[in-house]
Amino acid sequence: MNLSFFIASRYFRSKKKRNFINILSRIAMIGVAVGTMALIIVLSVFNGLEDLIRGLYASFDAPLKIEVVQGKSFEVSPAFLDSLEEVDGVESITEVIEDNALLKYGEDQMVVTMKGVTAAFLDEERFSKGYFAGEMTLGSEKKPKAILGRGVSFMLGMNPSSEFENLRMYYPEAPRAGTIDPSKMYNSGMLGYAGAFSVEKKFDDSYVVVPLSFAKELMDYGNKRTALEIKVDSGHSINQVKERLKKLLGARFTVKDTDEQHAGLIRAIKIEKLFVFITLTFILAVASFNIFFSLSMLAIEKKKDISVMLAMGATTKLIRSIYIKQGAIIAFSGAIVGLVLGFLICWLQDRFGLVSLGVASSVVESYPVKMIWTDFLWTSLSLIVITFFAAYRPASIAAKVNTVEHL
């Protein structure tokens, strides 16, 4: 066994009664354990929330979305769509026309995001991870129906059982010169009510899904589309299919995956997680100050022992190594306990949902957690750095003991 480690471990396991230094070392170890456990738990919760948000958005958005780089819409043709369908890994294509419109029901009205889609939209189980009430249909070309976000449905005071009230959608039309009739300045269309969904607040409070034929006629779009949504075959990588589509489409179009479609939100979550990690690391550093104090007091108490070792031929490097390893033993003992406890608590939360969100939710009832090995790695590395700085100063003081004075 390494001599410095042997002596450090003897100091750590010392069983002298009423030894305040040993008590302080145990307190330091407990502080490190609690800080490490808290760091692992909080990071795992952030990972779980990030995964939950990704899943909710993915249940409404397609794995890949094609949009034009410049402008709002682009022309599509059967040949163009066929070329996309021939790309290896593309399972289906949903044509999309999306824009703001005015929706009216009875005396209530609000501006919504109208999303016109082809039938493939409903075949892709877009509302599988949320709440849905009503019929999963967009009606027919002659009798179109709309699927509303639950927030939109609530704001309009929808009564699903009423057969006498229909939805009416209004969209502004480019005015013609000399037109003074207000009715010529907008297009409108009637819709039946099919159902309501709840996926995520952003969608729930603004989106109304309608048939593509209805949106095309209302907006007078013809062959123009605002986006194409691609469903990727389960046996293919999304990134690989994305690269193939980019190569086919060229610089005129963008192909975005689900993270890129909501890049701002994902970036915000990652930044928040980073700042939480930094904050809790500082708390862990404060908890590690006890290591500094316990090693400083140990260096004072063991001056005579240090003098004897120096007189017997020990080097200052050995003395410094003893105290650094003493700090490492305290910190790593606490870290191992903290990592194990953090893992167990996260596992229990994931398995049994011990802590509830505290609000009624149809999507998730308890705090989601997801453990990632890199969180354990970065926590361990930050603890190594903190321990080194906490132990280095007391170790340097111990190595400068005057041998003659303390013998």
TrEMBL record:
UniProt domain MacB-like periplasmic core: residue ranges: 27-152
Keyword entries, A-Z: Cell membrane, Membrane, Transmembrane, Transmembrane helix
GO biological process, alphabetically ordered: lipoprotein localization to outer membrane
**Species whose genome carries this gene:** Echinicola strongylocentroti
Q: Which InterPro entries does its entry note?
A: ABC3_permease_C, Lipoprotein-release_system, MacB_PCD
| ABC3 transporter permease C-terminal domain span | 278-402
Entry membrane topology: Multi-pass membrane protein
Transmembrane intervals: 20-46, 274-300, 327-348, 371-392
Q: Which family does it belong to?
A: Belongs to the ABC-4 integral membrane protein family. LolC/E subfamily.
Whether Lyase counts among this entry's keywords is: no
One Gene Ontology cellular component term attached to this UniProt record is:
plasma membrane protein complex
Subcellular location, record wording: Cell membrane
The protein in question is named ABC transporter permease
Is Protein transport a UniProt keyword of this protein?
A: no
